[in-house]
Amino acid sequence: MEVSVKISKKGQITLPKRVREALGVKAGEKLVIKEEEGKVLIEKAPSSPFDEFYGYLNLEGVTTDEIMKEIRGER
């Protein structure tokens, strides 16, 4: 598949819908961009087994010291 895209003033491009569908990517997912011999290769980033847990723990306002005390069983 070959498509033409335009680079914005900010250096951004929009991946056409058929390219996103072919890669199986959705908004918010990560891609890997490689430059090889003057060519650009865009691939879907490998997923981490931890991705599904991102944001699971709400530690806002909790200090590192408080976390360590909890882990050690100190209260």
Description:
With 75 residues, the protein is α+β, with helices and mostly antiparallel strands. The protein has a domain at 1-47: Pemi-like Protein 1, Chain: D. The protein has 2 helices and 2 strands; from the N terminus they run αββα. It has helices at 17-23, 64-72; strands at 31-36, 39-44. The protein has a two-stranded antiparallel ribbon with strand order 1-2. The model has no long low-confidence stretch (mean pLDDT 86).
Please give the oligomerization state of what you see.
Answer: single chain
Largest sheet: 2 strands, antiparallel
Low-confidence stretches: none
Specify the number of helices: 2
Shape: elongated
Strand-and-helix sequence, N→C? Answer: HEEH
Helix content: 10-25%
Distance linking N and C termini: 60 Å
Beta fraction = 15-25%
Question: Which structural class matches the secondary elements?
Answer: alpha+beta
As for the CATH topology of the domain at 1-47, it is Pemi-like Protein 1, Chain: D
What is the level 1 CATH name of the domain at 1-47? Mainly Beta
From the alpha carbons, calculate the radius of gyration and give it in angstroms. 20 Å
The strands making up the biggest β-sheet line up spatially as 1-2
The appropriate CATH architecture of the domain at 1-47 is Ribbon
Overall mean pLDDT: 86
Would you count the extended β strands for me?
2
